[in-house]
């Protein structure tokens, strides 16, 4: 199986792909695919990395991931026994090269523009979720009609961006494997001490070459990305376990001292860990 680019399995001559992912964990390798992905998280929670940005996902989220947008779902194994996501996949050419260029679909132009960096719905989520659930036993025609209904709701909804920077070129297989290895190692070892030489070795590059490579593809340094990942995981602990000391959370998320944790947390979240805990 190729991880980057990733091929969405589909039946011959089917334009709209319907998929259910119901397992303990979602597919957790960095990947991209030509199709635009519309997904509803029916059950599950964890970390979602899209392009250069680390987000959290949870039950009830409605997500839109654009064509060839690198992303990875990392399910939170400590909180869930089952993950369930329903998705629709399609391209701008799935129903004919000029289908979405017809004046009938001029209202969808903002949808396609926003999908480039991905977004999640802030409003009308319940309506979209109900439509997705109705697709489970629907025919292909009913699912196509459902897609148009979902798109109509989405273009009227308030949304939140999932990424701020997207590498403008499609990953080759070799480059995709390298980025996958970097992300896999970082996601699985963020709570440990990671130095530049260690992560450069994982990428099979010199430290200087690795720094340039990562910055060019994410628009941020590796250690900025690593700290953001650590902070996102600290947010989960601050929200879910009120009895755990902030200093303990800092060490569990890979920070060597509390003052550094407090400083980095404020840089990312624009507030202190204690205020974040109070607000959540």
Low-confidence stretches: none
Strand residue percentage: 15-25%
**Widest sheet: strand order?**
1-7-2-5-8-9
- The protein's oligomeric status is single chain
Integer-rounded radius of gyration: 20 Å
Count of separate DSSP helical elements: 10
What distance lies between the first and last C-alpha atoms, to the nearest angstrom?
40 Å
Task: Give your account of this protein's structure.
This protein has 280 residues and is an alpha+beta fold. 41% of the residues lie in helices and 17% in strands. The chain is built from 10 helices and 9 strands. The chain has helices at residues 109-115, 125-134, 140-156, 173-189, 196-202, 207-218, 222-240, 246-252, 258-269, 273-279; strands at 17-23, 36-43, 46-50, 53-57, 62-65, 71-75, 83-90, 119-121, 159-161. Strands 1-7-2-5-8-9 form a 6-stranded antiparallel β-sheet, with helices on one face. Strands 4-3-6 form a 3-stranded antiparallel β-sheet, covered by helices on one side. A hairpin with a 2-residue loop joins strand 3 (46-50) and strand 4. The longest helix is centred in the C-terminal third of the chain and has 19 residues, at 222-240. The radius of gyration is 20 Å and the shape is globular. It starts with 16 loop residues before the first strand and ends with a helix. The model has no long low-confidence stretch (mean pLDDT 91).
């Amino acid at each position: 199986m190729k991880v980057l680019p990733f091929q969405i399995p589909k039946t011959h001559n089917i334009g709209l792909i319907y998929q259910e992912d119901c397992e303990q964990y979602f597919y957790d390798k960095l990947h991209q695919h030509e199709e635009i992905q519309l997904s509803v998280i029916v059950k599950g929670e964890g970390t979602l990395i899209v392009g250069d940005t680390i987000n959290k996902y949870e039950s009830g989220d409605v997500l839109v991931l654009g064509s060839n947008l690198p992303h990875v779902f990392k399910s939170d194994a400590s909180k869930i026994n089952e993950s369930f996501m329903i998705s629709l996949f399609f391209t701008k050419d799935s129903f004919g090269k000029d289908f979405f260029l017809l004046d009938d679909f001029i209202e969808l132009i903002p949808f396609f523009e926003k999908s480039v960096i991905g977004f999640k719905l802030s409003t009308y989520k319940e309506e979209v979720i109900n439509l997705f659930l109705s697709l489970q036993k629907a025919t292909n025609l009913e699912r196509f009609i459902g897609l148009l209904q979902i798109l109509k709701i989405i273009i009227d909804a308030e949304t939140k961006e999932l990424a701020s920077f997207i590498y403008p070129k499609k990953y080759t297989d070799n480059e995709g494997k390298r980025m996958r290895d970097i992300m896999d190692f970082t996601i699985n070892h963020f709570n440990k001490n990671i130095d530049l030489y260690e992560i450069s070795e994982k990428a099979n590059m010199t430290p200087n070459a690795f720094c340039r490579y990562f910055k060019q593809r994410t628009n941020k340094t590796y250690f900025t990305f690593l700290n953001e990942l650590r902070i996102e995981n600290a947010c989960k602990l601050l929200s879910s376990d009120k009895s755990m000391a902030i200093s303990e959370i800092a060490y569990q998320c890979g920070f060597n001292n509390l003052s550094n944790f407090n400083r980095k947390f404020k840089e990312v979240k624009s507030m202190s860990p204690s205020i974040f805990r109070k607000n959540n």
